[in-house]
Design a protein that fits this description.
The protein is mostly beta strands. It is about 10% helix and about 40% strand. The strands form two sheets. It has a four-stranded antiparallel β-sheet with strand order 1-2-7-6, with no helix packed on it. β6 and β7 form a beta hairpin. The chain starts with a helix and ends in a 14-residue tail after the last strand.
Length: about 120
């Protein structure tokens, strides 16, 4: 519990990249990160225990360029999300500069049985 709280506290002050969390139909949640300038190869999504970790690292493709103004961030990032028990990553895709990660919560299995009284 201390490790999870420590990770959340360290991540709380970080604002890059910005993200949205939306509730779709049923039990589907979608996390959308603004990753303009990143290619699929620059991004990695992993799940460690109850944490979803999204990493981005761009190559030094502009090292031979001379910029008059450089306002587009080309920095690496690590964004962590603590998942509720039972949440699973269903899909991940990029569209219009956004990385979408869909999460589902499987239906709980109810094990009901009758207990005889003696």
């Amino acid at each position: 519990l201390e490790q999870v709280m420590d990770a959340v506290a360290k991540n709380a002050g970080e604002g890059y990249p910005p993200y949205n969390i939306e509730h779709l139909d049923g039990d589907i949640l979608r996390i959308s990160l603004a990753v303009a300038g990143f290619a699929r190869e620059d991004l990695a999504i992993t799940q460690e225990a109850s944490q979803l970790i999204i990493r981005g690292r761009q190559g030094e493709d502009g090292a031979d360029k001379t910029y008059l103004h450089r306002g587009i961030a080309a920095r690496q990032f690590v964004r962590k999300f603590v998942l509720a028990d039972g949440m699973e990553v269903a899909d991940a895709f990029m569209e219009n500069g956004l990385l979408h990660v869909d999460l589902t919560r499987p239906e709980p299995v109810t094990n009901e049985r009758t207990i005889p009284i003696r």
